[in-house]
Amino acid sequence: MNIRPVSDLKNRYTDIERQVIEDGPVILTKNGYGSMVVMSLPQYERLRGSIDAALDAADRQAATTTVRYTHEQVFDSIRSGLGEDHAQAL
């Protein structure tokens, strides 16, 4: 995980750009706390494409049945699938 102060975005843009291309997204911090993530356009497009594809698949599946779940049911199912340690973080 690459973590840099947000001031590096202005002062060391070229370094961050290289790091993003070579190593993946960079987390920028402000006053010691996470502020934003910088990623390359191809990385963003892949991420966005994965999300869009998952939503399209969910739409197709929902069209094949009348069964619907509440958000509580969905998140409870996810939590139980992740196990106790991860469920507490959600």
Characterise this structure.
The chain has about 90 residues and is an alpha+beta fold. It has a domain of about 40 residues: YefM-like fold, CATH 3.40.1620. The chain is about 60% helix and about 15% strand. Strands 1-2-3 form a three-stranded mixed sheet. The longest helix is centred in the middle third of the chain and has 22 residues. It is elongated. The two termini are about 20 Å apart. About 0% of the residues are buried.
Ordered list of secondary-structure elements with their pairings:
Layout: E1 2-5, H1 7-11, H2 13-23, E2 26-30, E3 33-38, H3 41-62, H4 71-82, H5 84-89
Parallel strand pairs: 1-2
Antiparallel strand pairs: 2-3
Rg (CA only): 19 Å
Low-confidence stretches are none
Oligomer, anyone?
single chain
Based on secondary structure, the structural category is alpha+beta
DSSP strand tally: 3
Largest sheet: 3 strands, mixed
Q: What is the H-and-E element order?
A: EHHEEHHH
CATH topology of one domain: YefM-like fold
* N/C terminus separation: 21 Å
CATH class designation of one domain: Alpha Beta
Number of helices: 5
Strand order of the largest sheet: 1-2-3
Percentage of β-strand residues: 15-25%
Q: Overall mean pLDDT score? A: 88
Overall spatial form: elongated
Quick one: CATH superfamily of one domain? YefM-like domain
Estimate the helix proportion, in percent.
55-70%
* CATH architectural type of one domain: 3-Layer(aba) Sandwich
